[in-house]
Design a protein that fits this description.
It is built from 6 helices and no strands. The chain is mainly α and 173 residues long. It has one domain.
Length: 173
């Protein structure tokens, strides 16, 4: 299997992660925030997006360099940590006092990773810039609580927009 096929496969995983993330929106709007349908879609999205981010980075690695790698690493770790937090919510687990700092660390990883990843992806110009901008907009709109149920739609669409050309090995489409 060639590196191009591996990267393409990771691109497909990014697309599937984006679709799963978008499914959180109807889950939240129909059954409410933190409903089981929303949480399961989010859990699946977290891990697919963590893996898919690697494929997006691999596709544009030459142009994004070390900053792209750092952004990808932070974003992937943030998605994995978010998945763990979602899983604990599904289980209705109460965190110990030692774990109370995890959401703060997770938010910092995701914020820095998303901003850096969006910036280098936009600057590289190898993937659709609208998707990188959408990912960056999502970061800042996330501070508006009234939009929270709709933002997962935007986040997922950005991943579909970035992952599709990687999967199809066809930039700018």
């Amino acid at each position: 299997m060639t590196m191009d096929k591996i990267t393409s496969g990771f691109g497909l995983i990014a697309v599937l992660g984006g679709v799963a993330r978008m499914l959180m929106t109807p889950g939240a709007l129909i059954w409410g925030s933190d409903s089981m349908p929303e949480l399961w879609a989010g859990l699946i999205a977290c891990y697919l997006m963590a893996i898919g981010s690697i494929g997006i980075y691999m596709y544009e690695a030459v142009r994004t360099g070390v900053l792209g790698f750092i952004g990808c690493l932070l974003l992937s770790l943030g998605n994995m940590m978010t998945g763990c937090l979602v899983w604990s919510t599904i289980l209705k687990a109460e965190p110990s006092e030692a774990a109370l700092f995890l959401p703060i660390v997770n938010n910092a990883l995701m914020l820095i990773g998303l901003v850096l990843f969006s910036f280098v992806t936009f600057r590289a110009g190898q993937l659709p810039r609208w998707a990188a901008v959408m990912l960056l907009i999502w970061v800042f709109l996330g501070f508006i609580p009234a939009l929270s149920s709709w933002l997962t739609l935007l986040w997922g669409l950005a991943y579909v927009g970035l992952g599709y050309p990687v999967w199809r090995n066809n930039p700018h489409h």
